[in-house]
Design a protein that fits this description.
The protein is mainly beta and about 260 residues long. The protein has two domains: about 90 residues, no CATH class; about 150 residues, Jelly Rolls, CATH 2.60.120. About 0% of the residues lie in helices and about 50% in strands. The strands form three sheets. Strands 1, 2, 8, 12, 14, 15, 16, 17, 18 and 22 form a ten-stranded mixed sheet that branches. Strand 19 and strand 20 form a beta hairpin. It is globular.
Amino acid sequence: MGLPLSAGTGGDVYSIPEGSIIVHKAGITTVYGPERKVMLSIADNQAGIVATPEGPARATHVHQVPSGSVVRDVDNKTTEVIHEGKVILTVINENEMREQRGIEQEWLEYAMYPPAENEVSDLSVTGFDAYWKVPSSPPYPDAEAVDFLFPAIMDEFQEYPSTMIQPVLEWNYEGSGGWTIASWRVYQEDEDPGHWESYRSDPIPVGEKDLIYGNMIFLSGEHSPCWAISICNNDTHESTTAAWQTDRTDKLWIFAALEG
């Protein structure tokens, strides 16, 4: 299996019903349907590799969710995805260790604040806006390379667990051969590069020279403070969004990066 697991519809994904539960345990991912019957069970090291803006991951740990979804961490093992007021996906991670991926993907260019990796951030942030234009397509569009261009906010740097949120411009994601935009929330459990769980909103195709607007904004509220992540094609006014439910606004790191 080489496709992201999705409780939504559309896209190049492995679709599962709304209300499903995904359990990671002992290096095996099991998907239970809404009636709690096993739909899929696969060893993670047998799953295909999927690119993410924080490095390549097993397809069993990448989830495409409908635009407008809220990702909520229930505890240090359980995450819920909420869409239109109901839980459409639950992910439970009982793994103690996951296997190393053994493939490379890196930030080719980046800028960050604080500017030194060994600094402790005292930055308090409630929003981050970015505009950029879709570049021309790579000279060899049939190649397997996947590239990401994005601004980002991270709640920890070189400390774990950590979360990064990103409105992302993607080249050739899942072999699309074109440009797409999506909002991402990526969680890293510890320093092992295999310990990622990624959530990606429904993608939207974009074209060369389109103006892209990426936005991350903290929305306060008594019951559901969250970071809203949005990316929009300003030329067509199409957008795709996600949210990470948290009250974190301090000691943050901000980035802009090209990854490939």
